[in-house]
Write a sequence for this structure.
C-alpha cells in the first residue's frame, strides 16, 4: 500500500465524531467499498482467477444443495478472491456470492443504519456513509415522488381510480364525436328501421 500523508487536522476532526461513527469508519473506511448490492459479472471476472469455474444458473437450479462429494472445495485463490469481493461490498446492502449464488444479509441492521445516518447528518459527514433505502436523500426523493401523485390522473400511481373513472374520458370523447355527427346518426338510425341491428354508440 502506498504511503499517504495524513492531515493532523483530519485526525482531530475524526476524534470528535461519536463513537459509533468512529467504529464504522475504522471497519469500513470511505472509498473502500462499492454501492452495488451484488458484484457485477465484469467485477467478478476481474477479481476471480482466470481458472475459477463459475456455475451457471441452470447448474445451480439442478443442484440446489452443492456438496463437497460431487464438487471439490474452493481453492485458496478462489477463497481469497471471494473474501476480497465481500470486504469491498456495501455493508448496508445484502451481498451475493458469485460462486454459490448464496445471499448474505447486510452487516448492519436497518435500525443500526438509521442510527448511523442520524449521527452522520448531525456531524456533517453523511456523504461518507454508503447508500441504502434508509439514506435520508433517497428517502427524500421517494417522498417527492409520492407527493407528485394526483388521484385519478395516474401520475405516480399504478391504480388510476375506479373503473368508471378510468373509462370516463374515453366515453366523453365518444359522446363529443357523436354529438358532432348527430345529423348523420339520426339519418342512419331511420334508415335501419329505428335502430334495428344498431351496434354503434350511443345505443
Amino acid at each position: 500500500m502506498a504511503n499517504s500523508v495524513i492531515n493532523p487536522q483530519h485526525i482531530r476532526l475524526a476524534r470528535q465524531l461519536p463513537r459509533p461513527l468512529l467504529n464504522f469508519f475504522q471497519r469500513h473506511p470511505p472509498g473502500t467499498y462499492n454501492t452495488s448490492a451484488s458484484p457485477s459479472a465484469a467485477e467478478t471476472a476481474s477479481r476471480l482467477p482466470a481458472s475459477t469455474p463459475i456455475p451457471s444458473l441452470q447448474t445451480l437450479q439442478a443442484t440446489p444443495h452443492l456438496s463437497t462429494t460431487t464438487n471439490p472445495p474452493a481453492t485458496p485463490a478462489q477463497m481469497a478472491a471471494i473474501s476480497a469481493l465481500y470486504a469491498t461490498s456495501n455493508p448496508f446492502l445484502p451481498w451475493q456470492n458469485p460462486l454459490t449464488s448464496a445471499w448474505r444479509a447486510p452487516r448492519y441492521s436497518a435500525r443500526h443504519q438509521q442510527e448511523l445516518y442520524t449521527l452522520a447528518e448531525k456531524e456533517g459527514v453523511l456523504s461518507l456513509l454508503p447508500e441504502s433505502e434508509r439514506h435520508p436523500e433517497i428517502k427524500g426523493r421517494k417522498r417527492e415522488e409520492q407527493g407528485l401523485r394526483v388521484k385519478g390522473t395516474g401520475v405516480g400511481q399504478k391504480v388510476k381510480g375506479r373503473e368508471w373513472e378510468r373509462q370516463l374520458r374515453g366515453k366523453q370523447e365518444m359522446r363529443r364525436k357523436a354529438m358532432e355527427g348527430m345529423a348523420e346518426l339520426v339519418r342512419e338510425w331511420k334508415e335501419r328501421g329505428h335502430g334495428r341491428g344498431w351496434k354503434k354508440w350511443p345505443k
